[in-house]
Description:
Chain A is mainly alpha-helical. Helices cover 60% and strands 0% of the residues of chain A. In chain A, helix 3 packs antiparallel against helix 4, helix 4 runs parallel beside helix 7 and helix 5 packs antiparallel against helix 7. By secondary structure, chain B is an all-alpha fold.
Amino acid sequence: MRGPSWLAGILAALMIATAAYCASRLVIARARRRADERDVDLVHTVMGVAMAGMLVSWLNPLPDRVWAVMFSAATGWFGWRAWRGHRARAAAGDGPPSHGHHVTHLVMCGAMVYMLLAAGAVAAVASGTHPGMAVGGPPAAGRFPLLALVLAVFMVGYVMWQADRLPALARAATGRPGASVPVASLAFSTTPGGGLASQPAAATPDPPASPDLPASPALRVLSPRLAACCQIAMAVTMGYMLILML
Amino acid sequence: MSEIAVTQRGTGAPGDSRALAPADWAAPDARRRLQLALGALWLLDAILQYQPVMFTRAFSEMLAAAAPGNPAFVSQPVIWDARLVGQHPTGLNAAFATIQLLLALGIAWRPTVRLALGASVVWALSVWWLGEGLGGVLAGTASPVGGAPGPAVLYALLAVLLWPRDRGDATAPAGNPPAPFVAARAVGAPAARALWLIVWASLACFALLPGNRAPQGLHDMLSDAARGEPAWLASISQHGAAFLAHQGLAASAVLAALFAVIAIGVYLPPSAARATLAVAAVLAAAIWVAGQALGGILTGSETDPGSGPLLILLVLAFWPARTAGARTIPRAIRGPGAGGTRT
């Protein structure tokens, strides 16, 4: 049994739009020479495409094993960044919190690996066809539904945590080339990927800009609030896909 | 005018005219965290409602199962609702799931927290009536081990207790004593305690209903909960069932006594209240795991995680504040859902 095809189609379209948005962030950040966290946007671009392919099989451009290898590497990358951030924070004593948002990316990448491997395990039992989101099939060894539930609960909690902070996130980024995060953001500095970063990345604050000047469309694309909305959409979709693994 | 910067907690950056994000945004306090937890449960419900099986006639049959034994004013609307869902399973289930999704996001988005909590009360009470048949309370089949009085009514209760309002705060801002626990902030301590008493005393009564105190009553309930569950979870329920075999009366009496103690626990001094609340949390968790098998969500055919998490949330809402001192946040930095005294 699979989820309703129309629902999978809607979510796949949402994920493709999210991937396109993250790709545009990469392009704009590069064009404006902003020190954004490109790894986050890159992983989200790939994740959006992969999730769309998991929801709608014919959208999947790569074999599941390739995706699994890619997300395993991403998991390792964010694990390393989270560990490095933790060490930096420990070294700084009571300094600013650091790299907490990388744990979120770490878990999301890990969830992708789980879903890809678990779907493959189910397909190996059920049939030889492409699994897509092979949900509701026979209980296969290695599927670990409790892990799916734990990851889904994490996604749900992340959505609430992120949505609670939306009012505090800026609607547009600042425009200075080379800048990474807005000024006055040490407590809740927003990452380009939409996470709540905590590194003092804005060592060089942006110059004051007139509040009467509307932000350019490019800066709106880099908006922390918009990025957070995309992360919320991605986490909700991932939560749904994980629940389908039960 | 656009927001082009992020502010620190509740304050704009000194001299930063671009700090146009809400200046009164505050980090979540205890009540706000509980609101978010409630919203998270709504979101989990929404995702569970989007499961494939809910778009089939099985969902309609699940609803209809709540009708038998109930008086006509409950059973007939339940049957009507089940029939309607059976005729339009896709559209109605999608609508139900989307409503719950919006409730969750509305609670998370501070500007709409009141609207979402108010709507959640209406929605939860509707579900309690039309979807759960009032939890079997009037049918005589309610069981605290099975989730009575029904998760939906607990959602409504929590929405009321976590309402973003500080009772009496405006009249005595200077010497106003802090609320003894989070749930007291919205409705006042006496009303909150009365609601707690009603909930847990009713659970004590349900535990003594004939079906629950029958020799094999609790045994059968736990055995049923194990069906279709993963082996490890089924094993817990089956061990519990074996332990309770032919012990229905004694087990029900013990349960009822525990619920009664918990019911009066919030009237005790803080240290004793904490002890009874801890017992309540442990009991709710044990019932949730062994009696409800995590609400059956691992079977892929349930619409909510059961009453356990909601009872635990209720316990947290009544947990005595650590400090008796008036540790208040200046009104200027309170958020709409996060104002008042930290508890």
